[in-house]
Amino acid sequence: MDCFTLQITINAKLHNICEFKLLFGLELFFDPTVFLYSESQFGRTEVIDNTRNPDFVRKFVLMCNHECHRLGTLVLFMQFNNYPLFQSLPVSLTHSGIPGKKCGVIILTAEELSNCRDIATMQLCANKLDKKDFFGKSDPFLVFYRSNEDGTFTICHKTEVIKNTLNPVWQPFTIPVRALCNGDYDRTVKVDVYDWDRDGSHDFIGEFTTSYRELSRGQNQFNVYEVSGGSLFVIAFVSPQQHQTPDLGGNPSQPTSLHYMSPYQMNAYAMALKAVGEIIQDYDSDKLFPAYGFGAKLPPDGKISHAFPLSGDADNPNCVGIEGVLEAYFQSLRTVQLYGPTNFAPVINKVANCAAEITDGSQYFVLLMITDGVISDMVQTKEAVVNAASLPLSIIIVGVGPAEFDAMEELDGDEVRVSSRGRLAERDIVQFVPFRDYIDRSGNQVLSMARLAKDVLAEIPDQLLSFMKSRGIEPRPALSTSPLPELHRHI
């Protein structure tokens, strides 16, 4: 018996909502959800806040019989604020709620699904959207709709809300291609831009139409859309052929790389570098920072290095200020080929050798390491940390990306002091923080970056004092001719 697959979309148009409230004593705001029962499965939509006309994103996929073209038994059960409101029965969709009152209708839309199994990942941002909030800017979000054969549109995705901004950058999202266009790359896709309101009466900002084929062009001039005086951009698009496990190091020209060089926003490495670096640089008098990369093939012969100067000059690895470090980082991404394995020990030992030359307390070194969490030489790294623990050196590790950071937690040494070959580190010199814990998804980047900087620097004063005390170095008199110990920052 041949079968086909149907995708069921549910929405509702409800009136007499005030009568519901009076009869059932419900709150003023209504948060509808729908449960579906069939002969073989059970499903539930998402909850939509504060609306009498819910348009649910979540779909139900049912297997159907080609011979009789029937869905089988379907039962829909709607509730508001966890209170059952009415039930719909198969075919006739009769419903009950307030006796003698027509409460509204539940609308089912069905379309036979294609055999397309592809998925796509995309990310969008906008610039200079309309200000809709009286006391602020806007809280924008996007709603994607695919077009139907009858000219109507069916919702297929909603982005998160970005609070209080006219220049939002939404998080990347993944969507099945058949949900977006049912496998038809030229089918119209409509995108609405709204300003979120707590009471559910979201303000319409603007709209544009596109297609899967256009979106798949990714970041270029064709994927810039005018929206009510502002512009919306496709930052990145990963096609089904490209859709593999994210390349956490990878080619910086590809949006799957954590080093991706987007013209619209800094990548995670650059954001962490800027946030922490701008705080530490205030403790360095000359603002000259040696900056190194690890894990790359270098031109011209492709030699692999685990401690190469970002400046490209082995005799002068210094960069001027944090902006100089960022510039060298971006320039390095254009000239080297990122390559594994990822060895920490060489760069730790390089900075430790510098620290070992000045142990009289006149200088203190801070090494900032930004990494995706992979350590290929854990044994050697632990030994390097143990050796460095007796030197005027602290190590800050910022983990970026979605990886597990068990190795970093071990190096952090807050619970169990790092050891190597039976030797315990003389003192705890490593502080680790996962960058993802400091990304403010409401869009308040300044707040989250300040919090990151505060936490990663929290242990530096105690680590500096512990070294001075261990060497019996007394504080110098507060004279203008005797400056405080200088923090030398390495990256």
TrEMBL record:
MF-aspect GO terms: calcium-dependent phospholipid binding; metal ion binding
Family matches, as InterPro entries: C2_dom (IPR000008), C2_domain_sf (IPR035892), C2B_Copine (IPR037768), Copine (IPR045052), Copine_C (IPR010734), vWFA_dom_sf (IPR036465)
Domain C2: 102-225
Record-linked SMART domains: C2
Gene Ontology biological process: cellular response to calcium ion
Pfam families found in the cross-reference section: C2 (PF00168), Copine (PF07002)
SUPFAM superfamilies: C2 domain (Calcium/lipid-binding domain, CaLB), vWA-like
Entry keyword set: Calcium, Metal-binding, Repeat
Keyword DNA repair: no
GO cellular component assignments: plasma membrane
Family: Belongs to the copine family.
Record protein name field: Copine family member IX
Organism this protein belongs to: Salarias fasciatus
